[in-house]
């Protein structure tokens, strides 16, 4: 087991690399989609050279003239820039991050003892197989007639992913289930670059080098896969960010929220794809926003049923003692937890003043979403949560004018 201190620094490094490479990948991909959809008819002299569309842009204090060829230039340019390492390095850093956090740190992040008795290796195996198997299923679907019906294929994929999210959440922590779905979609996207888009481009370049007309079939398949990637970007980003928002993954129907977030993300992406073509349909974006808010409203947890304490008065000492026992093992300047040597989230809950300052967050995570203590490692009981809720209600009443 890696020393927790060094593992945190490694984690920071990997996360930084992952975010940077992902920005480079998705940034370039957004730019090329925009470029492709914004090209204008070029003047006659450019058309004679085989240029299909061009555009002018200004950025960073300079003018840029960009041109796209109908097929290919007559002669291969000396330097041709390829875009592939952005995708590969995003995938590699993502997988390393997944391995470090969820597999090496399985006892902290992957295993939720309240879900299954399966051993750690079994759950890791399920996680890895779900990513590889899921990629296989996607590749299979792309070879059926469904591949030519973008909408239907998208809906089938979201349906299958939602079902997988449900299945995974039966055997691993909720957060881990979410991240595996994100990793699976990311794997399909990187796989598209590796297995479909790059080979098509290599065939194109080879044909030009031989002075032949390239087979348009390759280009079409590459275009289809790149469209899939384009629609998948927003859902993937939503899933990655949702890991910071326990009201999504820790919800009893977290898998359904995940499905809804994927649909909303793809729908919002559709607005931008149309807009690049000059078709502006604001109602798509408005309806995506409304769906997002409706989801938030639907997911609002019902007030949880905690043991009824009747009219007991909870003393400050009693409440502080509970938080100190159940939370301060991780959230203190000197945590005693075996994994978290530095308080996660940088918050301290070791004395009354700190507890009072963070009372809203304590209520949110230990009463509302109940995903703290983390995987209930310190074994907080419902009775204790009820006492804490009672104490917070008392504080609120005495604060009221
Ligand atoms: C086993 C260690 C552990 C224990 C015990 C623990 N936490 Fe946490 N806590 C974490 C980790 C890990 C994070 C960061 C990940 C996250 O935010 O989900 C975190 C983050 C937080 C945050 C910061 C994020 C936010 O929502 O503002 C709050 C608040 C919090 N915990 C409250 C509590 C409370 C209240 C308790 C006790 C009832 C508790 N924690 C017990 C590990 C722990």
UniProtKB/TrEMBL annotation:
Chain ranges passing through the membrane: 12-34, 85-106, 118-138, 150-169, 175-194, 255-272, 279-299
Keyword Cytoplasm: no
InterPro entries registered for this protein in UniProt: Cyt_c-like_dom_sf, Urate_ox_N
Pfam families: Urate_ox_N (PF06181)
GO molecular function, one term: electron transfer activity
Domain Urate oxidase N-terminal per the UniProt entry, residue ranges: 5-299
Coiled-coil positions: none
Keywords: Membrane, Transmembrane, Transmembrane helix
Protein's name according to its UniProt entry: Urate oxidase N-terminal domain-containing protein
């Amino acid at each position: 087991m890696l020393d927790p201190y060094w593992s945190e620094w490694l984690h920071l490094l990997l996360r930084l690399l992952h975010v940077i490479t992902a920005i480079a990948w998705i940034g370039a991909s957004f730019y090329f989609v925009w470029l492709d959809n914004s090209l204008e008819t070029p003047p006659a002299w450019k058309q004679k050279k085989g240029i299909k569309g061009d555009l002018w842009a200004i950025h960073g204090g300079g003018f840029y003239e960009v041109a796209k060829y109908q097929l290919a230039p007559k002669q291969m340019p000396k330097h041709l820039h390829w875009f592939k390492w952005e995708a590969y390095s995003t995938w590699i850093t993502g997988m390393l991050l997944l391995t470090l956090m969820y597999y090496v740190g399985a006892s902290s992040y992957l295993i939720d003892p309240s879900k299954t008795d399966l051993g750690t290796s079994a759950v890791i195996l399920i996680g890895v197989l779900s990513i590889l198997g899921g990629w296989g299923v996607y590749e299979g679907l792309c070879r059926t007639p469904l591949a030519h019906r973008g909408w239907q294929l998208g809906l089938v994929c979201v349906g299958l992913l939602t079902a997988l999210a449900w299945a995974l959440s039966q055997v691993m922590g909720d957060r881990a289930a979410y991240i595996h779905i994100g990793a699976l979609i990311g794997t399909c996207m990187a796989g598209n670059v590796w297995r479909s888009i790059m080979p098509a481009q290599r065939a194109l370049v080879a044909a030009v080098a031989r002075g032949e007309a390239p087979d348009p079939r390759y280009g079409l398949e590459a275009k289809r896969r790149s469209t899939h990637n384009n629609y998948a970007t927003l859902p993937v980003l939503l899933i990655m960010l949702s890991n910071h928002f326990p009201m999504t993954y820790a919800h009893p129907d977290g898998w359904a929220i995940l499905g809804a977030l994927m649909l909303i993300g793809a729908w919002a992406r559709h607005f931008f794809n149309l807009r690049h073509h000059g078709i502006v349909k604001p109602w798509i974006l408005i309806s995506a926003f409304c769906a997002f808010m409706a989801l938030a409203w639907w997911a609002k947890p019902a007030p949880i049923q905690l043991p009824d304490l009747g009219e007991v008065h909870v003393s400050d000492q009693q409440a502080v003692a509970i938080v100190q026992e159940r939370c301060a093992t991780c959230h203190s300047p000197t945590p005693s937890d075996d994994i978290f040597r530095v308080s996660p989230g940088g918050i301290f809950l070791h004395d009354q003043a700190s507890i009072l300052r963070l009372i809203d967050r304590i209520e949110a995570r230990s009463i509302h979403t109940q995903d703290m203590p983390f995987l209930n490692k310190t074994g907080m009981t419902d009775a204790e949560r009820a006492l804490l809720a009672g104490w917070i209600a008392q504080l609120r009443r005495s604060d009221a004018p």
